[in-house]
Design a protein that fits this description.
- By secondary structure, the chain is an alpha/beta fold.
- The chain has four domains: 6-92 and 192-279, P-loop containing nucleotide triphosphate hydrolases (Rossmann fold), CATH 3.40.50.300; 107-182, Arc Repressor Mutant, subunit A, CATH 1.10.10.160; 324-368, no CATH class; 381-519, PCRA, domain 4 (Orthogonal Bundle), CATH 1.10.486.
- The protein is 54% helix and 7% strand.
- The strands form two sheets. A six-stranded parallel sheet has the order 3-2-6-7-1-8, sandwiched between helices.
- The radius of gyration is 27 Å and the shape is globular.
Length: 520
């Protein structure tokens, strides 16, 4: 407690009812959450397994866990849940599988898989623009918004004003039907399905409210409707929770976040206590004064003023530039000039930009001035679609039960397997309680699919089974993997989409690297 200021201490000590901590930027909110967990365990004698803390990113969850582990010995934190919303939802679905429409080895479709499924559904129904990324993106966004607002497909029509958008409601129903047939969920389902189960099952709701005696939520301003409802059902009428957030830091409205959820807390929990953390530990007074001037223009749910004891600080310079090229040149020359004047190291400089496309021009200027740099962020090697495709083949070979990998590669490259065929395959798989791959070579499938589709599906199943045996028998997997990739026709498939010779070269490098990754 000695390391917390009076407001932080107040937030940490209050455990008798619902609490909203309005934490301005840099006000030490993570310290409040982690020390409150320690306080609940040490001083309130609450078992760690009865405490759950949720946040939005894996990085934030890891940091929270690390800080708690520094405050308490490991035996006292055994059973403590610190996770993202989606991790929590996934564990919930596994615990309560009997209450879901899923079977045990259900798959999680990532955004690429969802887009691919929607595109196939649109092509099957001969919808114009089925190959338009913009149209598919719009469909994904609308379906995600409906899910996060807990709107079922049959009710989605009622939310639309534009008749041309009616097709998206129809797609929503088809999309959900195919997900269930594939025994799959998307990322939204990891929140939406548990919320619906808690809403509809009073006995299960009571069970989880007894299981979680105290709930802590970080970045509460970024919760959407489904997450807000999930929190309500988990804490129950007693409201044993602390939520920490700041409506001025909400930046995810485009993906369904609703900072007004903070105001709803007061309506749903009349005894809500509010504590404001306004002391900033990161910035000087001048920066905070400028930030407050900008924030003044926001539509506030709660009024607060950030302050600092770090002194006035240097003046802020605002530079007007003619265009993007001029801006990049100015930034690069400012860095070089400052380094020469003060004798600093290159690693002491950083440039922040809003969007990734802005990095290209800045990189060109830094190269011209021979300034060494490291670009943070960007696309991960394993996030590239080519790598995910190849790894999908390898995942299925190593684990024939991996339905998610099966769905990714069954039509990559194209094999003429439409959504209707895959839906029948998925239903057959569920009826016989076997994986999608095992269904491909099951004799009974011939009575479900047309002969041509059955032949293609069976050939694919035998192809995977062949390479499963080959890789099991050979000590060096790399040549076998390369042979498999070549036989799939994947290299020609990807190269046909390459726009330039450089992209073709990049594709070759990626495919070679993927086999080396497998070998490791």
């Amino acid at each position: 407690m000695s390391q917390l200021n009076p407001k932080q201490q107040e937030a940490m000590l209050y455990v008798s009812g619902p609490l909203l901590v309005l934490a301005g930027a840099g006000s030490g909110k993570t310290s409040v959450i982690t020390r409150k967990i320690a306080y609940l365990i040490e001083e309130c004698n609450m078992p760690a397994e009865r405490i759950t803390a949720v946040t939005f990113t894996n990085k934030a969850a890891r940091e929270m866990k690390a800080r708690v582990s520094k405050l308490l010995p490991s035996e006292k934190t055994r059973g403590l849940t610190v996770s993202t919303f989606h991790q929590f939802g996934l564990q919930f679905l596994r615990y309560e599988l009997i209450h879901t429409p899923l079977k045990g080895n259900f798959s999680i479709m990532d955004s690429d898989d969802s887009k691919r499924l929607l595109m196939e559904l649109m092509m099957r129904d001969n919808l114009s623009g089925a190959e338009s990324r913009e149209l598919v993106g719009k469909a994904i966004k609308m379906i995600s918004d409906w899910k996060n607002d807990l709107i079922e497909p049959d009710k989605a029509m009622e939310t639309l004003d534009d008749p041309e958008d009616m097709i998206f409601a129809t797609l929503y129903a088809l999309y959900e039907r195919n997900l269930r047939a594939y025994n799959a969920v998307d990322f939204d389902d990891l929140i939406v399905l548990p919320t619906k189960i808690l809403r509809e099952n009073r006995e299960l709701r009571d069970k989880w409210q007894n299981r979680i005696r105290y709930l802590l939520v970080d970045e509460y301003q970024d919760t959407n409707t489904a997450q807000y409802e999930m929190i309500k059902y988990l804490v129950g009428p007693q409201g044993r929770f602390t939520v920490v957030g700041d409506d001025d830091q909400s930046i995810y409205a485009w993906r369904g976040a609703k900072p007004e959820n903070m105001a709803l807390l007061k309506e749903d929990f009349p005894k809500l206590k509010i504590v404001m953390l306004e002391q900033n530990y990161r910035s000087t007074t001048r920066i905070l004064t400028s930030a407050n001037a900008v924030i003044t223009n926001n539509e506030h749910l709660f009024e607060k003023k950030l302050w600092s004891d770090k002194g006035q600080g240097e003046k802020i310079r605002i530079i007007n530039c003619r265009n993007d090229d001029d801006e990049s040149e100015r930034v690069a020359k400012e860095i070089v000039t400052h380094k020469l004047r003060f004798g600093n190291e290159w690693e002491q400089y950083a440039v922040l930009y809003r969007s990734n496309f802005q990095a290209r021009m800045l990189e060109a200027q830094l190269r011209q001035l021979q300034v060494p740099y490291k670009l943070s962020g960007g696309q991960s090697f394993f996030a590239r679609s080519e790598i995910k495709d190849i790894m999908g083949y390898l995942r299925l070979i190593l684990n024939p039960e991996d339905d998610s990998a099966f769905l990714r590669i069954i039509n990559t490259p194209k094999r003429g397997m439409g959504p209707a065929t895959l839906e029948k395959l998925g239903l057959f798989s569920q009826e016989h309680s076997i994986s999608l791959l095992a269904s491909c070579t099951h004799a009974g499938l011939a009575h479900v699919l047309p002969s041509k589709a059955y032949g293609t599906i069976k050939e694919f199943g035998e192809f995977i089974e062949h390479y499963t045996r080959e890789l099991d028998q050979h000590p060096d997997p790399v040549p076998i993997v390369r042979q498999m990739i070549d036989e799939t026709g994947y290299i020609d498939f990807v190269r046909s989409d390459a726009k330039t010779p450089q992209q073709e070269k990049t594709v070759s490098i990626i495919l070679i690297c993927s086999t080396l990754v497998f070998n490791r």
